[in-house]
Design brief:
This protein is mainly alpha-helical. The chain has helices spanning 2-53, 55-77. It is rod-shaped.
Length: 78
């Protein structure tokens, strides 16, 4: 009878431990899902910034060519 009682306590301890581990794993899965969501949002923001940035080099080139043209026009006029 003592063995059966000890086995029952051991079973209860194991169930408690497994329940705690299961809860911790669920928390880790939830954190992983949240991290995946955050990464996806950051990727979307970076892509939006990349799309918004594309005209800057083109604008800089147009301004540079315009400045060169104005400089040449002024130099030719003198």
């Amino acid at each position: 009878m003592s063995v059966a009682l000890e086995l029952e306590r051991l079973r209860g301890t194991c169930e408690t431990g497994f329940t705690r581990v299961d809860g911790q794993l669920a928390l880790l899965v939830q954190r992983g899902d949240q991290t995946d969501k955050d990464i996806a949002e950051l990727k979307a923001e970076v892509e939006a910034l990349k799309r918004a940035r594309w005209p800057l080099p083109s604008i800089a080139a147009v301004v540079s060519v315009s400045a060169l043209a104005v400089t040449l026009w002024q130099a030719a006029g003198r």
